[in-house]
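Intended use. Records like the one below are meant for learning the mapping from a protein sequence to its folded structure. Do not use them to infer anything beyond what is encoded.
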Amino acid sequence: MTKSMNVSYVLITSLLFSCALFVVSGVYVATPLLEEFSISFGIPISKAAWSTSIFSFCYGAGFLLFGPLSDRYGRKRLIGFGLICLAILTTAIGFTTSFSQLVLFRGLQGFVAATFAPSAIAYVFEVYPKQKIPTAISFISFGFVLSGILGQVAADFLNQVWHWKAAFFFFGLLYVLCAMLVIICLPNKGEKRGIEIRQYIQILRVIMKSRNLVYSYLITFTLLLTFLGMYTVLGNVLRGAPYHLTDQQILYIRVVGIVGMFLSPFAGIFARRFGSVSVLKAGLTLAVIGLVGLGIVSHLSLIIGMSIIFVAGISLTFPSIMMVVGGLGGQNRAIASSLYTFILFVGATFGPMISIPLMKETNFTITMLVLSAVIGAGLAISFLLTKKVESQQHGG
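Structure written out for the chain above:
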């Protein structure tokens, strides 16, 4: 019986990891395509960046709705429904003929994509034994982090071999497959409890009165802001002097960034041994070092190395902050996690909006140092969490 359940948990975790990987790739698909959008629709790159920002904003906003809906209608049902809608909307983007249409469908795509994360995180806390939760969360967050590279690499590759629209057709097909697997394979567990709007607002008030959760949300805001901010401008820097890299060479550099992400699955092990807050601080420290390094080095191999260090830091930070928020949220963890992801992607919205103008007005060094200061502020805030959070998490 135990062996059977262990196999079941492995399959569930693998499925949730795959869904996380493909769903959140939608955030990053447009990042390497901005120049193509600029050419195809005759718009400046700064305007093309709205294809990324609108997804991030609507994605974050969707969490505020879909967190409570997953409480009311059930985790599996909402995940399956979201994947079906996501498949339709993502495929539709490939048929758009104007930038306004693309932005509209990217916004809808982001909004519907928000069905997955809060439902999946709450599902894990409800279905898994307590000792298996950190590992499951680590693999789901590994999917979230790995998507930051996969989304860019897949879109860049498909654009080079065919057309930018191929990226959306490809992910549309993946969402169909994921929806089928969720409907067939995911056990329908977890309680459904309806929440009225008044009760939802009361829960939000309770959450925002928790100082530790507020600190966690402030840290969260810096994560995708700096990640998307860095990757949005890195490609153009490497295309220019003195590097003059081709699109294919830049694609390889994006792929190399995956190396830094392999720390993420071990975050659960580190958290059990050292505590999630210690892992969080270590991840933020690595991220700061990586961004500062990107700002001050000029040799290509060092730039690649520093980007790996930055990605490694982010890959440790995501699962640890998710464990902190999930633990502090208690029975309200679905809404607490929804608010976490809303803030995460509000930050993502600001990433390109900050880094592109900074690059125009200053240079790559200053842009990276500003981004390092942003995530450095998150590191400073993490020291306010230390013992209180660990005791609250283990105390339930």
